[in-house]
What does this fold into?
Amino acid sequence: MKLIDRWLQSWRERKVRAWLTPGARVLDIGCHQGEFLEKLGAVIGSSAGLDPLATTRETPRYRIVAQPFVEPVDFPAGSFDAIILLATLEHIREKAPLAREARRLLAPGGRLIMTVPSPRVDDIVHTLVRLGLADGMSLEEHHGFKPEDTRDIFEAAGLQLEAHETFQLGLNHLFVFRRPENEVAGAK
It folds into this structure.
């Protein structure tokens, strides 16, 4: 990973980290090799990461599973206080199953926290890669997803939008959805 890749990733991580509560059980979808879970360290409780490119491993605080996100994920309903997707949503073609499964996996009051880049970022990253300034990650999987569609997808699954803001000069979006607290885990 080049310097600019790490800098942009770190910026996204700071945005997401601000929404995590101490001791939260976290599922990181698209976790790569679990770098963000490792950085979170003692801030998080028992957690997990999913990524098709990961190496399966287990630490005292989290486990990494080498698999893509496919509904249903092999965790019980209500297993997580937070689900995070750092620049991952644009890699997942079928978003409705992700939204349904996120709702199922979140404990009542749990948060889905994600960063979603603007499609304009693809052109910028491709240019940076051609210039040798960035590596980019799995750019061939991007399919022009529009961040403005995010709210409808996740609200249709029963999650409530808690926050939405842009950052990185308006080229990236932070979305925070919450599962209603008055629900029983696993119920719809």
In short: The mean pLDDT is 87. DSSP finds five helices and eight strands in the chain.
